[in-house]
Amino acid sequence: MESLDLANRIAEIIVDKQGEDILILDLIEVTTFTDYFVICSGTSRRQLDALQSALREELKKTDERILPFNVEGDSHSGWILVDYNSVIVHLFDPEMRAFYRLEDLWKNGRVVARIQ
User: What is the pTM of this model?
Assistant: First the structure.
């Protein structure tokens, strides 16, 4: 699966699980370690866990059986990072997202999609 297709599929899964303020950032021209960030907020620890689980389960079901290279953080920390190599997913609670402001840090990236 191409990187942009993967980022879009991840966003679809997040929408299905009612994640909020979803942003896909194109970082191809900005960095070499990944192509896209998908950033979203969850309203509770339980929802962050559900988002992570849904991503892992749904992408594993694809023909390519896509598995993350790494998962860091947990819902208790307020930030879960799921690394699919060409796409890195950041699942935040609202406080942590406001604190780390990845959108500002990576403002040179091109916004591909924003789903409110």
Answer: 0.95
